[in-house]
Known about the structure:
heterotrimer; B: alpha/beta; 3 helices; globular
Amino acid sequence: MPTTSEPVEVNIGPQHPSTHGVFRMVAKIDGERIVDAKMVVGYLHRSMEKLAEERTYTQNIPFTDRMDYLAAMTGNLGYCLSVEKLAGIEVPERAQYLRVIFSELQRVASHCMATGAFINDCGAWQTPVMYCFRDREKVLDLFEMTCGARLTTNYMRIGGVAFDIPDEFLPALDKLVNDDLPYRFEEYDQLLVGNEIIMMRARDVGVVTPELAINASLSGPMLRSAGIAWDIRKADPYCVYDRMTFDIPVGYNGDAYDRMLIRIEEMKQSLRIIRQAVHALPAGPHKTDVPLAIRPPVGEAYSRVESPKGELGFYVVSDGGPAPYRWHVRAPSLINLSVLKEMTVGKTIADAIVTLGSIDINVGELDR
Amino acid sequence: MPHSATLTLPGAQVAERIRAAVPAAVREVRDACVVLEPAAAFDAMRAARDDAVLDGKFLVQLCSVDMITSIDVVYHVASLAQNHIFQIKVPADHEHPEVPSVSPLWIGAWLQEREVYDLMGVRFAGHPSLTRLFLWDQFPGHPLRKDFMSMPGGQKSGLSQFPKQVAGQTGQEFRPKHPGSGT
Amino acid sequence: MTPALLTLITKHWYDIRDLSNLSHKIEQLIADAGGPHWLIYVVSAILGAGGIVSFIGGVAIINIWVERRVVGRMQSRLGPNRLGPFGLLQPVADAIKLMQKEVLQPRTAYGLIFTAAPIMFTVPGILLFAVLPWGRNMTLAHLDVGVLFLLAASSLGALAVFMAGYSSNNKYSLFGSMRVIAMLVSYEIPIVLALLGIVLFAGTMDLNGIVLFQAKYWAPMVMLQPLPFFIYFISVSAELNRTPADIAEAESEIVGGYHTEYSGMKFGLFYAAELINAVVVSAIISTVFLGGWWAYKLDELVPGWMIYIGKIYTVYFLFVWTRGTLPRFRVDQLLAFAWKWMTPMAILNIVLVAAEVLLWEQSGWSAGFVIPLYIAVNNALAVATIFAFMRLLAPKFERFPTRLRYYAGIDVPSLPAATAADTARTGVQAV
């Protein structure tokens, strides 16, 4: 009698130490190979876009904290930029430089977490996670010094930033950027880059071709790993990025290993930007005078920032009232998952987990 | 190295190129966007993608806005090689909105169209698997619509005032039947 | 009081050094008191077994702390530090926690096998201690075929894993246990072959005999036979389900593996059995490769069993060190490693050892000439073998990874639009 085998449906998630939040993938597996994959999201859907229609523009800033909760500063920044574009508000120089400094610090923190979690997915029993968290803690200490919160910072305001930096900020930042972090990144270089086991796990896993990347609207490290040199900070500069000199790292293969390298390199480039910004930080007001419940003119605006996860865009429609008529967030985590099936079908479960880790999704932003 | 900002193409230029390929597709030309006819929207957007000048190979985002007389589906399309972005709107009927799906043109659209269907109720013709994304299958209505949970007497929405249309309804009927699966 | 204690200790130093004297004294007591013949054997067996089991119990408790604390320090964090000084009471808390947890059994699990599996997993670990020599005359069961007993008893663990996975009636457990059994069975072969090399060289399967061989020729086996040490260490960390081979507990993949459904003290038994197995294996390595209770005349000062325990913990520290440092292999990579690398290397080693033993017997050279010669030759050949395998078999990946490109501005080539071939697997066909 011929033996047959039936594919079995297995849930990966929603509670799982490895998926980055409550994300569920239903995989049909045959032995160790995935035959079909379907994703189920919405476990963290909080209807932020609907809630925003009943709150003033300033009251919506804390929502952006909680969407991508690991990169709150860039979320705040994108939202404030879109409202400022809609209402035609000018932001003072000092505020722009402060925004750049905090966005780049947030990029360091988020990429630290992403790299640590990725290597945890490759199986390294949490040692790299602890090392990466150590550096993230130092950045979060700076955030706490400035705005009182480590994670949901709520720091940017429409027209500038909420608080000016305290006196002890610049010396602490100087020590961090010039003494601590470069030494740590060298440690990462020695331990992680060229680590054979990570190369075996992550090379040629989760490959994305350039045509597919553009067609699937990928952005951030996923797009750059496929070989396309596109970064919103260079293409569509906001704040004072056009005055900063920095490089964007671009990969060759489009696989998970390239993405890990890109994230580590972006952290180093962020330090470069922070040094230039601190050097050129002017004196002045940290926020223009904007009424608490501003009423932008009727119209719509779309503006975008380069968040650590990809292109984070905010589309705001105003009807002249104090609350937005419609507010939509272009979430990079959701759109980067368009190619999940392409990357996981035909591969093993272990590879699927590594792929998911390399996309670096954040479910708060995915579900909103 | 000179830094360029992304150019936002004016509606007139986009409309001219689209009209050159698909004459009857453009309904209205505005300052910053082009409004297309729903019937010809697929061909028009294929023209926008394949056109040499517009080169709209990168779909930036796809969302929907409930303008009370119609539901507008808003597309932002960009060209990475030439670094410009333009906006297209496709209005749909408010009661039974239906718009052709652009997921064969841009893969990035298929998840965003599912989100629009889930939250706004717009059906996308030709979408490979149009199912709800965030909410469970039996969720009543589409939340982002302006008339969702609008109650007589101008009452504000809130969980204790979940719409009660039938006497004896407690609101527990709207919970998912199988908590683990979301259906 | 103290001077009296000191004189007592120094007078009976020989007795304390070698605990077999204690059992001999007790046997003489019984014989003098006119007890039956069999009582002597029973009493000495109970004393020996009691000593070993209390050692095991102590080790299981202490190693929980050692493992967590040392791994924590390696990860630049503190490890348990709340309970007791330096967190030393952490194992007590763990034991109490496990004992008072509700022991859940899924209704559809096969009850008898489900309960028997953790017991069957623990028992071989304890059994193996019986043949290990703790001193010159201190072996509980002095078997002539000690190595054979070791290999036979340690294979029982694989059966227990299968029992656990199958009886849980849970597809995750089944997958986990299937992967683990494939790995365990594959790594048995390099273990057997590595130990075979040692047995050939020493000429005896008796573990005490192997230690005496090393004592006689003043060279621990790790110097004489580095390749089997290397093979044995790696294969046995795979058998123990320790990182880098711990797919059984790959928490980030298939949650718990074969012990998903176990809770309470049954899970505690699995956990304790893993620790006990780790110590047993460290003990075997210390006996066979590092010289056991012998340490270049040190055993005249320090009791042999103390030296032995020191060596056990050194090798255990090596296991914990690898665990804290290396990421995990994928299961197919592990199996490839066992069959393509470890087994051929072990077979080559046996050929080499057989040739050496033959040469030694036939030529009649003196030990003082042959042993250093063999040390040099074996080390050189071990290094050469490993390099040869790396050159021939290692997957061709970049020795120095391709670095990224750096762009100062955006640079997007105008690419053609994606076709259906590009998007074939996404589920959406591009047009």
